Amino acid sequence: MPSKLSDFLSSFGMMLAGVLLLFFSTVYFSPERNFSFLKFPASGNRTQIGGDISLESLPVSKPTIPLIKDGQAKFSGTLTAVSAIVVDSKTKTVLFNKNSNEIRSLASITKLMTAMVLLDLPIDWSSTAVISSEDMAGDHHVEVGEKYTLEDLWHVALIGSSNTAINALVRSSGLKEEQFVALMNKKAQDLRISSARFIEPTGLSERNMASGLDTARLLIDALKFDKIYSTVQVAEYYAHPFGSKAKRVWTTNWLLTDWIPNNFKMENIAGKTGYIDSSGYNFAVSLSNEKKHVITVVVLGASTNEGRFGEARDLAEWTFKNYLWPDDSGYNDLTSN
């Protein structure tokens, strides 16, 4: 190393040492002074329950789901449905189950997904459509050449389960059917209704399918739309074709009429039916009791039209009789067991 560089480094080092010595000689640390910022936080007393967990710091955990009063309680009513399920609509807790993972044809329950996709589109419900021969799909509610508002067709489609009205609505959306069906399947994926598959928008195809559990999820999601919820609660509707007298359309949900006796108030009933030969009689319905506990009941593949409504009613009554919700008297006794 050249001598000049060596002399420079030696001088610089001595100068730096002098500066540091001068600094420390001017700083006074009082033993009484509390330098809390130099200390690590102190640990308070705690009760160990394993590892490093404090019993006092743990939140009190209580269940918020419905609980069955008697774990031995079994549904003893008639149940011809191939698949059935009862779900607490708020927590999605399964309260009754029969083959609910079996994937079955949905039939016209399909229209719930069709309705959700329609509501995602910029549709003018006051605009009109003329029923074409291509729309016709084997129902008597509307006829070729009749002109309706899309609002009217919406009600006919969901209340009377009209396939023709659904086809006219899909056509009026401006999308080709295959484009519309692609949106149906995408929405099913977005909603995590994983078993659902749709081929067309009416439910006439036996390849429109889902499990009973996913059918319950489908209804729960569909009823979040006010327009769907309020429509499927209507028992009797009058459609008004332009230039013709009004047509009465009855709901296909017989729990909303006097045809199937039940103790549920009309305002607490909202559901959708479905039937084709390969599906049997399907029914998905939301019901609530006097305490506003809401359940979703699905029966798929019941043997008769009337039977599906009676079976759904009986499952709902059994559920409300045998389960307690967090605000019910006696619920805390179940959580302490």
Keywords:
two-stranded antiparallel sheet; alpha+beta; Beta-lactamase; 337 residues; five-stranded antiparallel beta sheet
Structural summary, described in words:
By secondary structure, the chain is α+β, with helices and mostly antiparallel strands. It has a single domain (67-335), classed as DD-peptidase/beta-lactamase superfamily (Beta-lactamase, 3-Layer(aba) Sandwich), CATH 3.40.710.10. It has helices at 3-26, 110-120, 150-159, 163-172, 177-190, 212-222, 226-231, 305-322, 331-335; strands at 67-68, 83-88, 94-98, 103-105, 128-130, 147-149, 209-211, 236-239, 247-250, 269-276, 280-288, 294-302, 323-324. It has a five-stranded antiparallel β-sheet with strand order 3-2-12-11-10, sandwiched between helices. The chain has a two-stranded antiparallel ribbon with strand order 1-13. Strands 4-7 form a two-stranded antiparallel sheet. The protein is elongated and about 65 Å long. The termini are far apart.
